[in-house]
Every structure is written in C-alpha cells, then in structure tokens.
Amino acid sequence: MARTMLLIGTRKGAFLLESENRRDWELRGPLCESWPVYHAIHDAGTGALYAAAASEWHGSAVWRSTDLGETWALSSEGIGYDDDDPRKVSKVSSLAVRNGSVLVGVEAPGIFESKDGGETWSLLSTLAGQPGSELWDDPANQPPGHLGISALMTDDADADHFWTIVQGVGTFETGDGGSTWAPRNKGLRADWPRPHEEVGFCVHRLVRSPSDASRMYQQNHVGVHRSDDGGHSWTEITDGLPSEFGFAAAVHPHDRDTFYVIPLDPGHARCMPEGEAAVWRTRNAGESWEKLTRGLPQDHAHLGVLRAAMAADREDAPGLYFGTSTGQLFASIDEGDSWSEIAAHLPPIWSVEVAKVE
Amino acid sequence: MAQVQLPPTLTPLFDGLPRRVEIDAATVADALAELEQRWPGLHDRLCEPGPALRQHIHVYVDQERAQLDTRLEPRSRVHVVAAISGG
C-alpha cells in the first residue's frame, strides 16, 4: 500500500517517518550511523534514498539505501577537489536527483554528480567564472554559513535545467546541465555592500510552484520575494509578515498563489516571534498574509526552523511538514489550517523532505 | 606485523572490518594504503586530500603521536583514534 515517507536530516543521523493515512506515523532511526545529515531525499525514479552527511571524524559522504532505509552504504569516491587544489570539500550539504543521476552540492562551492546510484561521483561544476566565484574559490573566504551550495532545485520537465544557491551569494540557473550558468537575483534586496551587481544576496530558501513553472518564491535573509517569470526577476512580498527574516518556505502543490513561510526573529534568537509558534500563509501570491497557529504551541514556544526543514506533499489535500531545531516535527493535512506534532525529542532537525513510497 | 587498532566509529562503515588488524607495512601511510586495498573507501574516512590525516583523526605509534610518514617497526602497535570533537 502506498504510504507517505518523511525523510528527516538531523544533527545526529537521518530518521524516517512513515504513514498510510498521514495521521498515524511510525518512526525509524537514527540511521546513517548517526552522522550529521544535512539533507536526505528520495529518488522517485529508482526508489533509492540518499543522505548527505558530514562527520567531524570521517569527513563527508553520501549515504544511499536501495531498500527504503533498511540498509545503508556510503561513498565519497570522487567527491573532492584535486590534491593540489587549495579548495577542500568540508561538507556535503544539498541533494537533488535528475533523470537517474544524483547531484550533491558541497562546500567549497561545487556540484558533484553520480550516475551509478551514489557509488562514485565526479565534479559537474564549480560555477567557474560566475560573479562572486573569485571570492568563494578562495579557501579563506568561504560564504558565511559554510554550507557552500546550500540548495539544488531541479526541473521535472528538463533534466539539464536546474537552479543552485550559493549560500550568501545568490541563485544561479543552468539550462545545459551545469556547463553554463546565469545569476537569477534581479530585484532582490540586500542591506550590505556587494562587490557585484548581480550577486551578494542571501537566498535562504527557493521554491517553485508545481502548478505553474514560472512562479517561484523565496525566503531571503531580508524579505520574502515572488517571481512570475521563472526567477528572472523578483518582487518583494514581505508586507504583512511579522519579520522579514526566516529560513523555511513551501509552496502549495496545486495553487500557485498559496505559499507558506515561517518568520523568525532576525537577531540572535532566530526563533518564532513572541514565543508563539506560527506558520504564515498567503493565498494571493503575497498581497496579504494570515497567521496559522491552531495546534501549534503558543506559550514559550521558542522554536526555530532551518532552511531545508519544511516540505509539502502533492496529495489532493496537500500535507505540510516542518521540523524544528529543537527536534519537533509538525504536520498539517488541511493546507495549514491546523497542525499536530507527529514527532518530538529528535535531534536538531536540519532538513525535511516528503515522498510517496510503495 | 604491526597491530592497528581502529576507532569504533569506523567499523560499522565497512563489511567485516574488525577493530584490530595485523598489517605488514613500513609507515602509517603504507598501513592505510593496505587497509584501503582490503576495504575500499576506508582511506577517505581517515585522510583528506594532500593526503593528510583528518583534523580529528589522531594516530599513535607505540604511544607516540604519529603522522602519515611515521615509520612502523615489525611489532609496532598503532592506535587510530577518533578524537573528541564536540557533543
């Protein structure tokens, strides 16, 4: 029977939550020998699971499972710059699949690809020559946050078309499988000096509407922004939110105008404002926002949610999921109107992805 | 034969890898190369490009802190330690 699987990356391993009805969940983990897992995904084409992990002791590797998480193996063969290259791979931080191959983004910024199910890897691109690369190619000048390539977003309709975020620099798009790139940050705001007009933007989370390929949203370090032209230009839609700052975001799978963010205090706290847990939703592409709190803790709930820790499934009545940096996982199966805690006491959650598995 | 003791975080990563391995090698680097032959991928878990020992992997030969070029005697005891790196 088909079931929903949540893939949870945490500071102490990967966890899997599974449910046939999205109400009753079974938890498995910690997996991947409790290595810090930055991102875990499911490849719908092959059924494989992948987890990008970086051990303080044993370095970075991508774990893989071909039996839905029962057994795992890891490999870093080919994930690394040449011995005489001053750049080092300190971390594997983001994963994506495209047409049978697997992509992993690393720090120092680069994208590696596996065409054999994660057994071996080769360098696909370092975005060489892009504005800002002269800075991020310097080992002493890595982008803040030290994720390097903090996200990869593929296009189901075109395997050669995808986007990547260089943390603290901005979004870049390729249409030829990573051979050439273009910055896609026009119209974004930055409250700091930038060495190039086209980059220097702190894109926290980029999402694209499954129902309209031209519609994108992003939660930025400064503001929430919408694009109606596939990321070529951006319009700020922050008005009405309690904070311009946040990390996580999700877009409704069937309605391009419905989008969710989790605003956070921008200071040291980086928690939900006033100790009240809330997801904010727009149903009109950012013209107005509503605060969603039903089922979420409202008293001294000092919860943070990181950039990759929110996801939406694609059911007719879509489910939304987010994990906190204090180890709770919340879910909604009524488009955010109400929420329930489906796991607690996990390690700090770094990523949440959702898949349909058999 | 030198006796190499490996950290408990390493053994679950490779089928059949024991905590203690007997190796005939002239240096620490040679010993790790031999381990890589027997368990492909192991070298990368202990060394970074250069190659050099990973920051939090410490090696001791006969109780003295060692590096990759440290020589081994036929009956050396080599301890590979995953050093404390936070909670």
By helix and strand content of chain B, what is the structural category? Answer: alpha+beta
Instruction: Give the beta-strand count of chain B.
Output: 7
What characterizes the major β-sheet of chain A?
Answer: 4 strands, antiparallel
CATH architecture field of the domain at 202-350 in chain A: 7 Propeller
Give the H and E element order of chain A.
Answer: EEEEEEEEEEEHEEEEEEEEEEEEEEEEE
Q: How would you state the average pLDDT of chain A, rounded?
A: 97
Number of domains as seen in the coordinates of chain B: 1
How far from one another are the termini of chain A?
6 Å
Write the layout of secondary structure elements.
The complex is a heterodimer of chains A (358) and B (87).
Chain A: E1 3-10, E2 13-19, E3 26-31, E4 37-42, E5 49-55, E6 59-65, E7 73-75, E8 91-98, E9 101-107, E10 110-114, E11 122-125, H1 133-136, E12 149-155, E13 158-166, E14 170-174, E15 182-183, E16 203-208, E17 216-220, E18 223-227, E19 235-236, E20 246-251, E21 259-263, E22 279-282, E23 290-292, E24 310-312, E25 320-323, E26 329-332, E27 340-343, E28 349-357
Antiparallel strand pairs in A: 1-2, 1-28, 2-3, 4-5, 5-6, 6-7, 8-9, 9-10, 10-11, 12-13, 13-14, 14-15, 16-17, 17-18, 18-19, 20-21, 21-22, 22-23, 24-25, 25-26, 26-27
Chain B: E1 2-5, E2 20-23, H1 28-38, H2 42-46, E3 47-48, E4 52-53, E5 57-61, E6 64-66, E7 77-82
Parallel strand pairs in B: 1-7
Antiparallel strand pairs in B: 1-2, 3-4, 5-6, 5-7
Can I get a quick summary?
With 358 residues, chain A is mostly beta strands. In chain A, 1% of the residues lie in helices and 42% in strands.
